[in-house]
Amino acid sequence: MSAVAVSVFAFLFLLVTILGFSAARWRRAKSMDNLDEWGLGGRGFGTFVAWFLIGGDLYTAYTFIAVPATLFAGSAVGFFAVPYTILVYPIIFAFLPKLWSVSHKHGFVTPADFVTGRYGSKSLGLVVALTGLLATMPYIALQLVGMEVVLEVMGLQSDSSNWFIRDLPLFIAFAVLAAYTYSSGLRAPALIAFVKDSLIYIVIIVAIIYIPSQLGGWGNIFDAVQNGFDTFNSENADAIAAGDAAPKALFPAAAAGQWAYASLALGSALALFMYPHSITGVLSTRSRTVIRRNAALLPAYSFLLGLLALLGFVALAAGVMVGDPPNPQLAIPQLFEDQFPAWFAGVAYAAVIIGALVPAAIMSIAAANLWTRNIYKAYLKPDATPQDEARQAKIVSLIVKFGALLFVLALSKSYAINLQLLGGVWILQTLPAIVVGLYTRWFHRWAVLAGWAVGMAYGTIVAYGVSSPTQEHFGGPLAPFPGTETPIYIALTAFLLNLIVVVVLTPILRALNVPDGEDATSPEDYSVDAGDEGVVEELSSTTEVR
Amino acid sequence: MPSSSKGSWILVGVLLVAAAAPCLAVPLYAKEAPTLAGFPFYFWFQLVLIPCSVLFTTIAYFVAKAAFRRDRDAAGRPWKEAGQ
Asked: Which residues of A touch B72 (CB under 8 A)?
């Protein structure tokens, strides 16, 4: 533990804490007692704020730890994070402006609100909300896993066997986060995202220029990594042949690996904007134009992510030690610890920890919005006032965060990682209801529900059955496509099955005259923009920050 | 959607496909050579795809903006310049 690194880290942490609490006064609203303000930051963020907020939302601390870790571990498909982020933005461009329009017109706060209105089915809305909650919870827990590895490398975790004492720093960080999210709502992560992204940018740019120059340049790094992988593969040839160890490679050279690579990228990109927290970020923007402009501007982060992923190779070439048994997730923080001077290592640690706080805050807000709108208001208290909703959401945001904390500390980390894997499979099953629903009402509501159920069941069972050299169940995101030997991302296979069920059942249900719910939206609602009748440009703000 | 902007919206679709599709053609770029500044082709090609994708998405943004305005003019609905 370096006193300099810890002091720099503590200073930056204090700075974002102050920012988080003062965010309640930023773009001050007349009242914070409703979900549009607390849960969507007043729905008035412009291009600049939205860029930081959405970027801060999507590129989480766990991404920063886990993506390089997979390359460090020699997984040939780990770099899929790059095509994944390339695919995300055209998808955003195509469908999110429609969702923005219809949500603004009808005051929808969550994707499940839209589904309820579009299909005239509270149960379909409930199913979408529950899927969102199920998928988001482990995602929040993973942010804690990301924070934990940094605290471990910093030496801030004591050796005490009592889990409460050992993880006290994590508790403190999370309690502070919970407090300012409670008081400031979405404004807190929006403001902190400026600091987060600036720090992350600085750290990564320095890391990819400075560290490779210390190691003799990128050519040397790739050579060293390739040699290391070749040695591993020849030393473990028997174990690899027996399936007890996975071969290591720089990139997928065979067709099977390439299918896996492309399907992971496509499946993850389609799933990303089904996550409630991504939609929360998008719905907080001021106009359709802000979304499309951001679709063109956000890929700046993709470049960053690609370079960051390669730091996994840099860590390998630098001979970073990651404990015994090895934990590849320590690779990046340990690389910073080994290669940076103490004060800059402190900046880097702060960047990752703050990088966990922003998405954790947005995710807990999104989860709270889902609970409040689609369970509490829809089922428990239909006459809830906006004040009731805001109060409920604030409390739920606390419960969600402490639930995630207990989850990570009391249970095992691998639960969180397994559930996150399942979360991606599950959340993609809401795509027919949400995205297809934006374009057509042809799907019958019960067909959508049946497709969802089939996709969820299939995805869960198949994921359970995947074993890896280290895990009997949930061993990875890939399984052979039915009828072939080619490994494909399970979420994508489940999604295809889901779509087939919906398309087959819809005409059958129609022929049987099963009542299809009433559509609360009309075709013009999908193209309204700020300034139209019934679409308030900025809900209530006394200051303009642009 | 008035017919005058239909072509523009098709162009937007084509541009978005052009922005997204190349990274899915993994067999085309999963190779070692030629290297650039020490990076194997596989890695630098995907990094170069990012600005290319940005370029297509940006053009799509401007085409869509113009088409959206034409549609709204034709429907007699106002549009306004969005802020920053």
From this structure: 527, 529
List of residues 6+ apart from A205 with CB closer than 8 A: none
If phi > 0 it is left, if psi is from -120 to 50 it is alpha, else beta; for residue A541 that is beta
Nearest to B43 by CA among B51, B35, B53: B35
pLDDT tens track for A166-208: 777 788 888 888 888 888 888 888 888 888 888 888 888 888 8
The tens digit of pLDDT for each residue in A487-505 reads 889 999 999 999 999 999 9
Distance CA A65, CA A422 (A): 19
Select from A452, A446, A448 the least CA-distant residue to A437: A448
Which residue of chain B is at minimal alpha-carbon distance from A265? B24
Q: Quick check: B47 and A217 CB within 8 A?
A: no
> How far is Cα A45 from Cα A281, in angstroms, rounded to an integer?
9
User: Looking at beta carbons, which residues of chain A come within 8 Å of B67?
Assistant: none
- Count CA atoms closer than 13 A to B49's CA, side-chain side: 26
With an 8 Å Cβ cutoff, is B33 touching chain A? no
All structural domains of chain B with their residue ranges: 23-74
Minimal Cβ distance to A287: which of B46, B58, B82: B82
Share of chain A above pLDDT 70, in %: 93
Per-residue pLDDT at A154 exceeds 50: yes
Note whether A217 contacts B38, CB cutoff 8 Å.
Answer: yes
Domain limits, chain A: 3-23+43-408
Three-state SS annotation for chain B: CCHHHHHHHHHHHHHHHHHHHHHHCHHHHCCCCCCECCECHHHHHHHHHHHHHHHHHHHHHHHHHHHHHHHHHHCCCCCCCCCC
**Shortest Cα–Cα distance, A114 to chain B (Å):** 23
Q: What is the pLDDT of residues A440-484, one digit of tens each?
A: 889 999 999 999 999 999 999 998 888 777 777 777 788 888 888
CATH number for the domain whose boundaries are A3-23+43-408: 1.20.1730.10
- Taking contacts as CB-CB distances below 8 angstroms, the residues of chain A near B51 are 299, 303
Using CA coordinates, name the residue in chain B closest to A305: B47
DSSP code per residue over A320-371: ---TTTT-GGGHHHHHHHHHS-HHHHHHHHHHHHHHHHHHHHHHHHHHHHHH
**How much is the pLDDT for A542?**
32
User: Does the pLDDT of residue A543 top 50, yes or no?
Assistant: no
Model pLDDT for residues A111-137, shown as the tens digit of each residue: 999 999 999 888 999 999 999 998 888
Amino acid code (one letter) for A19: L
Cβ separation B50–A86 shorter than 8 A: yes
| A348-368 burial: b if 16+ Cβ within 10 Å, else e | bbbbbbbbbbbbbbbbbbbbb
Q: Smallest CA–CA separation between B4 and chain A, in Å?
A: 17
User: Which ipTM was obtained for this model?
Assistant: 0.89
Q: Provide the token pair at A432.
A: 């027919």
